[in-house]
Structure formats: structure tokens, C-alpha cells
Design a protein that fits this description.
alpha/beta; Rossmann fold; Arc Repressor Mutant, subunit A; 2 domains; nine-stranded mixed sheet; three-stranded antiparallel sheet
């Protein structure tokens, strides 16, 4: 069932009132109180690379460890990876929609949308039955940034819609973080440009949450928050004093691009150390 909260309601989200002078009624399904908890937006390209997807998933899992709600837009690519990783880790996530909360879009995410409605929050400025249009996505992006304490752009090309979210966040006085990408990859042109223009380069997830004044609430081992492939690569590295990436590829028989993405994630989580093309276990 869809609920509505109007801008003159005493329970209308304060974060939105503070950031947006043009507050509108909000339609939602799920737990509206999540808007009062620590939140970070994790957004990026629909056409995400293996590296981008791995970063989004790892960051979302890390957010759960810090008791932080993950905000995104339920789009394919980075958004979907962030939502799903959060759910898989037992966290709570908010999906800001460019359509009515009763409309399943994209269709591929129908099950995820239902799951978020049951355990997290679906929210939209659009009443039931409203279909997503090209112009509704940039409009909803200002809501994503408004309800988030910080915004992370994981991967974005030069014309990615997530850059609009970054622009909205900056206008609202929110800190924007950007994950550095391969300078030869057009899909990272937008995120790298954000860093050039002043966004905080996100090279360590723990530093982001430290900036927000948050501490880990979970005592669980980081290993519990690793995917099967991440755990596999980590065990291979643990089995030797030092390995090259090519040696890891030979042992695991995995794709080189996937290995590079996993190596980046493990290094961001502080589990391994890379120098001069050699990888070793970090001194924890």
C-alpha cells in the first residue's frame, strides 16, 4: 500500500526541507524513519564495468558495517549492485524512484523493488501509476542527494546522469566523493573529472565513514562481507608471501579485469597491500 506525506506534515523529512525550497508531497512504501538515520548515496553508470560493480558492492557492504542506510535510484548497473549488496548483508536501503512506487521499473528489478518495500523504503514525488520519463530522472536525483549525508559517484562516463546527482549534492552543501577510475576507460571519465574539479577521491572506504563521524557497529570479520570470488583471491594471496597479478590470474584462472577489480576492493578494505606490481597480505 502506498502512503503519502505532505510538505506541511510535521513528520515530513527534515533533510528534504533543509535542501529543497520546492518541497512536494512524497509517496512511499516502507519505513519512512530510515530518512532520520545516517545515509550515503551510492550511484553511477547503468553500463558499469566489473570494477565499478565490485566497488559499489564493497562500499554498500561496508556501509552496513557502519550502520548506514544506502540510498540509490534502483537503476541498472551501479544502483542495482549497491541496493542488492546492502540487502544481502542484512542492511537497509532506500530507493528513490523516477516513477510511482507502484510501478516496477526497470522490470528486471521487480523482485528487488518488492524486497526494498518490505525491509527498507521506496520513495517518490510521483503518484501511483506515473511512468518514468526522460525528464523525471534528473528531477529525482535532487531527492537522492537531499536525503543523503554524503554522495559517492562510483563510476560515470562523461554524460552519466549520476553527475547530475553530484551537482545537486554540491549545490545542497553535501560532500561528494568519487571513486578513481582507469584514465583510459571512457566509463570513468566523469568520475575522474569530478576529482579534478574538487570531489574527494575515495580510496579508502573507512575514511568516508570517519568523515561522517561514524564507527563500525559490527564485530564480524571482514571476510563475512566478501563475495566468493573476493574470498578466493584473498586466500590465494594469503598462501604466498608475495604474488604478481599475473600469478594470481594463472592460479585462479580468472579474467584479468575481474582480478584487477577485486584487488582494488581488497586494498580499499585494508586486507592487502600492493606495490610495484606485487600483492601481499596487509599487516592487520
Amino acid at each position: 500500500m502506498t502512503n503519502i506525506i505532505k510538505e506541511n506534515d510535521k513528520n515530513y523529512p527534515g533533510k528534504i526541507k533543509e535542501c529543497l525550497p520546492d518541497c512536494k508531497p512524497l509517496y512511499y512504501r516502507g519505513n519512512l524513519s530510515l530518512l532520520n538515520k545516517p545515509t550515503i548515496a551510492i550511484v553511477g553508470s547503468r553500463k558499469a564495468s566489473a570494477y565499478g560493480k565490485s566497488c559499489a558492492r564493497a562500499l554498500a557492504k561496508c556501509a552496513v558495517e557502519y550502520g548506514t542506510t544506502v540510498v540509490s535510484g534502483l537503476a541498472l548497473g551501479i544502483d542495482s549492485e549497491a541496493h542488492m549488496a546492502c540487502l544481502e548483508s542484512g542492511g537497509q536501503t532506500i530507493a528513490v524512484l523516477a516513477n510511482g512506487v507502484d510501478v516496477f521499473y526497470p522490470k528486471r528489478n521487480q523482485d528487488m523493488q518488492k524486497r526494498i518495500a518490505g525491509t527498507g523504503l521506496l520513495i517518490s514525488e510521483y503518484e501511483d501509476g506515473t511512468r518514468a520519463q526522460r525528464y523525471t530522472f534528473p528531477i529525482r536525483n535532487r531527492i537522492i542527494s537531499a536525503i543523503s549525508d554524503a554522495v559517492v559517484i562510483v563510476e560515470a562516463g562523461a554524460r552519466s546522469g549520476s553527475l547530475i546527482t553530484a551537482e545537486c549534492a554540491q549545490e545542497q552543501g553535501k560532500e561528494v566523493y568519487s571513486v578513481p577510475g582507469n584514465i583510459t576507460n571512457p566509463g570513468s571519465l566523469g568520475t575522474n573529472k569530478l576529482i579534478r574539479d574538487g570531489a574527494v577521491p575515495l580510496i579508502n572506504f573507512d575514511e568516508l565513514f570517519a568523515d561522517l563521524g561514524l564507527s563500525k557497529i559490527s564485530k564480524k570479520s571482514d571476510k563475512l562481507f566478501l563475495s566468493k570470488t573476493e574470498s578466493r583471491v584473498l586466500e590465494v594471496i594469503r598462501s604466498s608471501v608475495e604474488l604478481s597479478i599475473e600469478q594470481i590470474r594463472h592460479i585462479t584462472n580468472m579474467d584479468l579485469a575481474e582480478i584487477n577489480a577485486i584487488i582494488t576492493i581488497l586494498e580499499m578494505k585494508g586486507l592487502i597491500f600492493c606495490e610495484m606490481g606485487k600483492v601481499s597480505i596487509a599487516n592487520l
